[in-house]
Structure prediction request, 590 residues.
Amino acid sequence: MTDRAPPLTPYPLRVLLGRIAEEWPSRHRIFDLPIARFFNVSEGPDLTTDFMGRLAATPLGPAAGPHTQLAENIVLSWLGGGRIMELKTVQILDELEISRPCIDMETIGYNIEWSQELKIAQSLEEYVKASMIIAILGEWDELEDHLGPDPGPHIFDISVGYDLEGISTPQMAAFIDGLMDAGETIDRLRHQIPEPFTDWREYEFGARIADTVTLSTFHGCPPDEIESISKHLMTRHGLDVIVKLNPTLLGFDRVGEIVHELLGYDEIRLRPEDFAADLQFDRGVELIGELERFAAESGRRFGIKLSNTLVVDNHREHLPDTPMYLSGQPLHIVTTTLLGALDEALPGKLGVTGREGSIQISFSAGVTKENLPYVTALGLTPITVCSDLLKPGGYGRLKPMLKGLQKAMESAGCASLSAWRQLAGEDALPSYVERLHEPASLEHYTREGTSKLPRSIDHELEIWGCVACNFCVTVCPNDAFLRLPTPDELHLEGRQQYLCLAELCNECGNCTTFCPEHGEPWLVKPRLFLDPTRFATEPVGRPAFLIQAANGGFGITPASGHQDEVDVLRTLLHAKEGLPLRPGDLVTSD
Prediction:
């Protein structure tokens, strides 16, 4: 146990739905995502796909990571068109202290964040809350013109790690069982549903939130342990299982050749000991075959996910720990090469275009708008994204990705995803891998092609006023930033003012990376708290403000030294497009 405040304090269902009820009529946004970035599955070619025998309206979704930890994050991904949500990995150790900052997206991606930052019970509740909100929004008349008459089916995929001892504990068993039958949690949350959604208090929400699982093996997990965990999940819980494999499976020499020689990332330092400790290729092929056989005998489905992040030495010294974990463009080349190698080693076994084997292939490695059509043609499902969503635009980048895929399909005369894959033919995978290794196709994956730095201007960030680029809002994976129009009477610089919902900020540092000005937005901009307990733990000197209901509006209690900002903040919060929360909802616990 630590005396530190928890990194995140989730908002209750009442507060989240109350924000939607306040934000929608006043600015036609949900969690600050504009309707122009909502994806309508009924428009354009049909993107319906099959994942482990279950239908999803699109093959795309957020990867297990910062975008699937809080309920509002998952809802934002769904609004943008994600229909297969790989929930953030949960493990028995739920009081980890992760160093900050933990994300570095300046060019390609690095992170040191590898597990949930919530208690196990909190994670369960967040996923149930997300499922309930999606069910409500999917039938809310206000959104029909923007999401279509039927948003289509979606899937929540559990993610757990990292050893059998932990996964077998009563706490982890209760977490998994609680997602397979969430009736008790749903009934406990029903009374929180506020106006104008109170009719849904009697709604028959689906109690089975998830019944598939992606096993995160992380680095160094022994093959026998992977096998034992997978069989436990299939038999004890009756889950269909995806095993996430590490890119180290390709071998130290081959990965080094791709990263250093082919792509030119000479500064990236691979560590031989990490490759030696991880699953080896031949043993991996053997393990895949054994788990496929066991799944078939047990009446379950089995698949593999390619891939985890790549463990590397910390050469940048921006993140405080070593090793760190690489993602983004170079990982795309490494992972597709690994997929090609596994396809050759397991002829006809993989569920890729032209093979139609029984082993489902989930893919997450440097997926972007530009390569999504090609990756989708390979027959991979789901295709999950993390690094691209940490760039400016955030969750709003999902819709252009899906529209780009539909445009490619329309150009080829394909009305469905199955037709698109059929058009690609049986050589789709080897052809794509070969093309990615040709100089003409490598431009966006090389060190030179990814070397452009974020925009920067020579100005110190201040509490009020800035260039109003909106980057802090869109790059925050936790939706912790708000932008509010500047009322004329305040005479502040900047057309927008930016506020940090401090209980949703885990100090990951991504807003600092992309802010054009000098400073840390999460630390410089006003930090709003709804919970007096959390407010009381805020370090001295930060611009913190406790927001509570008072006289039909918002009462403001400033941290020491920030009394002079209260009048400005009060005017801002009470403006026509002020704080998109309702005073009566401003509590974070029941």
In short: The CA atoms of residues 110 and 326 lie 5 Å apart. The longest helix spans residues 120-138. The chain has a mean pLDDT of 96.
